[in-house]
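User: Can you predict the 3D structure of RNA polymerase? Sequence below.
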Amino acid sequence: MREQGGHVLALLAARFDDVDLADDCVQDALVQAVETWTAQGIPANPPGWLYTVAHNRAVDRLRRAAAAERRLRAAAPQLIPSPLDPDEEREELVVDEREVGDEQLRLMLLCCHPALDRDTQVALTLRLVGGLTTAEIASAYLVPEPTLAQRIVRAKRKIRAAGIPLRVPARLEERVGALLSVLLLIFNEGYLSRGGHADAVRVDLADAAIGLTERTLRLLPGHPEVEGLLALQLYHRARMSGRLDAAGDLVLLERQDRTAWDGALIARANTLLARALDRNVPGPCQVQAFIASLHANAPTAADTDWPAIAHAYTRLAELAPSPVVTLNRAVAIAMADGPRAGLAVLDGAGGLERYHLWHAARAELLARAGEPERAREGFERALRLTSNPAEQRHLRGRIRELSPRT
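Assistant: Sure. Here are the predicted structure tokens for RNA polymerase:
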């Protein structure tokens, strides 16, 4: 239903040129679908059903708004604002939109409008196109859910107030960075759910992100960062089946059965990455894909080239610095040079006190450095900060392993 809702929202937004109206009506339709489909069964054409209900809701709202405006105009015409100047300068648009032909991509490009800041672009697109809940996005952003909700509401109001059209911009390159951030976050939520979802690994989200990235590459053929992102997603998708054991518990990378990884996806990712790197236009997606390639192509965990991975994370920190990149670099350094070297980097990372993986990584390095008590405290802190059931079970297991024997 998530994918169907996103597609219907994009169609309605294009039909009425009003994202806020489309979002509200689709949410109403989804609520009604739960009630009606539970009682009467799923219809033969679920997207068509959702579109019809949401479209009718939108028409009803517009009729009520028009009637209210007529009454107000008759009673107090001075309170009705004048129409916009038809000669007002607008952003240059691509006239022929057949080159895209996908309402969801048009909606994504609208959400990535330069009038919105980068975090808002990503959050709004995840909400409207990716179909992620506010809780899922807030978790991905490491911010409180109310803060994220307010950000999304303000963004939709800004789009409406500015009259930003749902069209394909002539200068697509200006919005590629935000678009790729959106696609990566959607994939990451599928790779390991952070929003408290019952499923730790969500293949539907991961595959949806891959599909949207493939369509983006068709829109921007030969773009090295889009190729890099698609390669990165494919490397991770290739080993998703080995991330959980039969009981649904997480299996760490070093313990995964590499024979179960999808060799065809890895080969396709290798081709994409080589093509992107040959263009000699480095970017963060390509560096991340290169790191993933070193893991995916290593015959065994012992064959992993950790010094190369640590060097790549240093390069990534130059291109796209962030506390999370620092965390991953610290882990790579620990694998290459020992836990104390990694801890020195990790303890210098700021802004991650509420991020459970910072505490988990630090605890793991402390355990390897021979400090089980401090490690156990770190795992306990990480446990309090995560809502993913598989991660919780893994952390409880590490706590038990480090607890004194009685």
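Residues 82-101 have pLDDT under 50 and may be disordered. Residues 46-75 form the longest helix (30 residues).
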